[in-house]
Structures
1.
Amino acid sequence: MLEKLGESLKGTFERITRAVFVDEKLINELVKDIQRALLQSDVNVKLVFELTKRIKEKALNEKLPPGLSKKEHLIKIVYDELVKFLGEKESRIEIKKKPYKIMLVGLFGNGKTTTAGKLAKYFMKRGYKAALVCLDVWRPAAYEQLLQVGKNINVPVFGDPKEKNALNILKKFEKELKKYDILIYDTAGRDALSKDLIEELNKIGKALDADERLLVIGADVGQAAEKQATAFHEACNVNGVIITKMDGTAKGGGALAACAVTGAKVKFIGVGEKVDDFEHFDPKRFISRLIGMGDIETLLEKAKEAIPEKKAEELGKKLLRGEFNMIDLYEQLQAMSKMGPLSKVIEMIPGFSQIKLPKEALQVQEDKLKKWRFIMDSCTKEELENPEIITGTRIERIAKGSGVPASEVRELLKQYKMAKKMAKMMKGGSIEKMMKKLGGKMPKV
Ligand code: GDP
Ligand code: MG
């Protein structure tokens, strides 16, 4: 289902995860990725541009929430906006009374009859007693088809193939139908939303006093779902949508987004011809699964993952050459944060596991590392590459941006200078000198 869209969006998130910098260039690339992916899924151009505009604005202007790096923040923005794009919140059917009446409406061939069976099974599995009612008095074989559907899942089917007036069918079974928890009414469609269909559906809806009027739309209509959902909502007061055939078309993204824009809640999706190919629709879960990365937490974890091995190797070489800038320091800190809390990292060093370091001291160190990451997130690329330019007003700006006092920024700069000095000394090969500087002694061998 929507494999292509999933692949593309996955690529988008991977691009963020891999990036060293979150800058306008990266954001522009992302925006292009997302536009391409959604347009291919038949999402309306205007909707696509509105979405990517929002993502871009937020990514460039929104204040970094505490505890998130720039990268994590960007992932969160893209993820949240995509979820919103598909309607944000799930909408569940709550069985508030018995019998609970669900009326399915929609055009020919969109999957109403098939969906009636799927819904009945869905509720049966949850312990409800369900029945199907055929109100399609248009198609000669409609009753037969529903009968077959009911037989497959062991659900009684009510209807009368000879009756030409749906209201008479309702009257005929009125008493008997009261015995059920859930009644699913299959209605007749037309090729298009015509006046007589509207009249028919409204008449049935009133007589039935339906608790839910659900529009069944095939995903293959793509962005045209917007027009259909709006028209059915206005004419027949539908209060939810079921999108079928999500399995058989690349246009499903378009249909989902189109429904979300009308405010119609997509309650279920059909993902195949079989009766179990049916799912409750939750935008959050849907997006997570589409990009195959679990929930947002897993996604954020990925962003925290260490620098690939190759980068670590590069860093080692740089150190040996005496080249070292704040980007390297930043990457080092990120790699460290991936290994876990400092106390854990220290335990991993041979010989250190026995030494008991005061917990408070470690905590202080840990907090410091976190703050440094925030500070570096507020630096421009130029500043990280060439920290010598960070003076006066730049320090003030960075302090404000990262929410730490200017003294912390200065301390980080001091640390950086020390690390750089060390790197230079390593280049000179004078480990002894370096140890002295650190206040240690070379062991005699
Ligand atoms: P109705 O005219 O609205 O009652 O539509 P039907 O229930 O008769 O379905 C029309 C066709 O769509 C049938 O061939 C179904 O098997 C097929 N169909 C319905 N739902 C799905 C679905 O979720 N996936 C796929 N692949 N086919 C479906
Ligand atoms: Mg039908």
2.
Amino acid sequence: MKRSGPLTPPKAPASGAAARPRPAFPARLDTSAPTPVNRPGAAPAATTRRVAAPVAVTSGIGMDSLAVRQSMVRKLQAQDISHPAVLAAMLAVERHRFVDTALAPQAYEDTSLPIGLGQTISKPSVVARMLELLCHGKSEKLGRVLDIGTGCGYQAAVLSHLAREVYSIERLKGLHEKARDNLRAFRLANVHLLFGDGMLGYPQGAPYAGIVAAAGGNDVPQAWIEQLAVGGRLVAPAVTGAGQQHLVVMEKTSQGVTRSVLEPVLFVPLKSGIA
Ligand code: SAH
């Protein structure tokens, strides 16, 4: 059976990210040897496309009110999200525009919602948590960021407020196109949607100040680590020692790469290839 995600166990308080008290960051640092940066010489695996053309947006259901998002942001603050730029970005982006009209009334609840092709839009607290980890300790905008698993494009839209350039990659053509349609109205000139296998990263945009993944594999692909800038940070779900998925934060320094394992989470699997 196909899993959709990020997944939430029935009646659990939240997808792993909020299921138990969060470890502080950095929680555990395993410093490994410096990672060699090999630039793959292969032809680009992804095609890129800019989001620019304006289109009329229908709202209709009153879910675009600032008050609803303010309430969502207050709940995020109650869940220990405190980075001002992340909170401002969560306040700015109208999440209801990324889900089907029938689901729009639930758009500002802390829940994941289906976006088609068996995938789901991450719940707001998980998006905010990951982006806060990505921006940790930085008050200025990030440079170039790679977003793996565009899905409906919501997280890419939030990232567009936090980074100068966002490269967002999706392996399912149907969702890549859906994200393009969803994002068109926002006229986000700094968001570049890519159709391709995100496991290979996107070398053309590297090095990245940040890499964030919404799908988890058995490990963090080496290509992502290679494409991370020195001083850059990577946030991704990955299966760790005990066979369970955790949020993993990696930082590249001139001395090497540090790896911190944070709370358990449950995201959709990271799959190779396109479909
Ligand atoms: N950030 C998204 C979440 C989508 S769910 C949002 O805001 O909607 C995770 C997505 O990762 C799914 O759309 C899935 O198709 C995609 N995915 C899984 N493996 C991938 C890969 N190797 N490359 C690119 N996308 C991938």
